[in-house]
Amino acid sequence: MEANVQNPGIMTAWSLLFVAWTLVTVATLGSLFFSEIMGVPVCVLCWYQRIAMYPLVLILAIGLLPYDPGVLRYATALTIAGWLAAAFHVLLVAGIIPASAQPCVQGIPCSETHVSLLGFLNIPTLSLLTFSAIAVLLFFAYRMESS
């Protein structure tokens, strides 16, 4: 354990992992707030993104105490899956992907947005930005770990 404390690369990787965990935790609590408190309906694509996001809270926390670089591999796989679902969702909302391609059920369409922050940040865009930030943090944590 003492060798890890003296290695600045590992300390930086741990810090980046902690920031990623904090971001994932805030995103998870935010999604629960929107659906459970504000009553925003959750579409199928939102559920796919949640399936990728929610386990990251536990996986990253387990990788923090004690620091385990192996967690980066598992977290990256979920982050990529979530990013792909979020990117598809953003393109669907933007009208780039036709509504006929949406996997959502009638009554809760994926192409509609119910929340818009600052006039342009909807929930799918926030999800895509969150997964992108997590991917960047995990990439740099990996780079710090291997240096």
Account of the 3D structure:
- Strand 1 (116-117) and strand 2 form a beta hairpin.
- Helices cover 71% and strands 3% of the residues.
- The protein is built from five helices and two strands.
- The chain has 147 residues and is an all-alpha fold.
- The model has no long low-confidence stretch (mean pLDDT 88).
Helicity, in percent? Answer: over 70%
The spatial strand order of the largest sheet comes to 1-2
- The N- and C-terminal alpha carbons lie at a distance of 18 Å
Q: How much β-strand is present in the residues?
A: under 5%
Rg estimate, integer Å: 17 Å
What form results from the Cα inertia axes? elongated
What are the secondary-structure elements, in order, as H or E? Answer: HHHHEEH
